[in-house]
């Protein structure tokens, strides 16, 4: 075994000399005729059918009786065993050793005999199996014209059987042989550009969008297409092929989240004659691309027009694909109808054997369930998607979206370690690898692991460079940037990012039909909450609140979409002018969040409710919400929520439920609040209203820094805890020590404990 281990790759290349000699020891003791038959059998691989082996044996001068006798000796020596209607080697390595032991010329001659036998037809072999084996043996026999035509026929059979990797490999074999066979186009019956178009399509089916782009680009170059066509000009001579190549490349670019898809599709539409059957397929990809690009109104219009075209020409593939797109677009306002349309598209695709459409539909259906808070069904659909990938033989290339869906579900349950294990299984598709980084970023953010957040962002940008990627792919990074800016004290930056998000929907007639825009409203509301507690930010809070109020004036009345209802209650709690009404909205949001089996949403909404209760002057209710948030934070490691809850307790003089009474922690005294009435409600004392009551005139931030100093933390650690720089901490420490009349950090810590901060 040592010679295996010392090789560069034990799983590839010829068997090393030592192990091959061991494997051949038994074979070499057999009669010459038996060894000769074993050489014939090994040339077919590790198994061969009796009829095919007998046909090859006859062409090698071996009679039927001699063949039977040789096979009997091989079986008795446990080299071969009967399998189905033929024979199999006891081990694939033994077959490889026997084949390697043949002389090069001998191998070529045997392959030629196989090709001859297969070309004449072998009883009992299917046309598909015959074509595949003929392509292999003709190529090995160096009969390039036969290998070309056989590979082309075999590719057709592989396509019919939805054997996507094999289909692609055979088409690429045709392309490999093309320049070696002078009359290749006449033998295949198609120009090379059409073979490249099919190879591009097969690359997509096999899960290789980058190769799909390369094949389609080469096909366009083959036709001399370097730019885009004038829609008003005469149609080009190869209009249908040009449109097909443009369509294939656009589909691949869409899957990769890269620019250029819309331009390719526009050119395909420009060159196709009116009413051409391919128009429905182009329209289907156009609708899906517009949806991914966040142009939902145009996407819906294109999908409806494409669906009409598909049904008119009987294009069931495009019909199923368009139903998936329409169902996904409908999932925001008319979510139940959208779920039914999605299910219809999946069913049609499954009945018709459209693997890519079925899996796309399952992925989108799972996402729709997740957005409306039906997490259990989201997880079930993701598991079904993985099962279907395994059944269809595409698990290696098509499983990424379902692994991501399961990871999303696990993360919302607070099962971060399991989610990260699942994310490690995503290794293929660039877009899904990038999306996996956005989930890693989200997990790191909730753990308050800033290094992890930045590393995930850097990886994302490396995988999907911003200048050539769909803007919608970058939205999760925008939302996290916005929230981090507010949490780290970069308030002006947080405000600017929030305004940009609100302005991105300025041209929307119905903003709540744009799902990606809606997703950005929740973090804008969170920025309002975080800025509200900062002195001097009242004007910015008013601007953001007015912007959110304007958007929510168009809220769809009567909607029963759980995600929209939760969002409305959350934002109304954050921008409501009447504290009691805002608190009622917050409590409604808490109730909806509790139904979602989603600890991330539950914790976030708990903080919204605590802030609303403080604004309404209900300190007891605020304390109850903060205690619930702290319990979640401790159980699931949600340090982001723990820190925000602790800050609220400190700022408003509430007991910090995150501090154990067993270690002697005491409540933060009211004297350390920011001087505002609890929650901003009525009943504030005159001293608090004037800003009095703070010891030695400490500002709220200095009181927070003092509490951290009392824990023995360094300036860097305090900065991470309070979301400010170490340099800013140093300034606060200097000012705080001067106000307290102490000369070192130890004395400041003692003073902090006297004030109930230790």
Task: Report the C-alpha radius of gyration, rounded.
Answer: 34 Å
- Quaternary state of the chains: single chain
Percentage of residues assigned to helices: 55-70%
User: Poorly predicted ranges (pLDDT <50, ≥5 residues)?
Assistant: 1-16, 660-694
Order of strands in the sheet with the most strands? 1-3-2
Q: What is the overall pLDDT average? A: 85
Q: From the helix content, strand content and strand pairing, which structural class follows?
A: mainly alpha
The major pleated sheet works out as: 3 strands, antiparallel
In angstroms, what separates the terminal alpha carbons?
65 Å
β-strand percent reads: under 5%
Q: Give the number of helices.
A: 41
Instruction: Let me know the number of strands.
Output: 3
What is the approximate shape?
A: elongated
Per-chain topology:
Elements: H1 2-5, H2 17-28, H3 32-43, E1 47-49, H4 50-59, H5 64-76, E2 80-83, E3 86-89, H6 92-100, H7 104-120, H8 127-140, H9 144-160, H10 164-178, H11 184-188, H12 192-205, H13 209-222, H14 239-256, H15 261-271, H16 278-292, H17 296-313, H18 316-329, H19 335-352, H20 355-371, H21 375-392, H22 395-398, H23 400-412, H24 416-423, H25 430-447, H26 450-463, H27 475-487, H28 491-503, H29 515-519, H30 521-532, H31 538-552, H32 562-575, H33 579-594, H34 599-615, H35 619-636, H36 639-652, H37 686-689, H38 700-709, H39 715-722, H40 726-740, H41 745-754
Antiparallel strand pairs: 1-3, 2-3
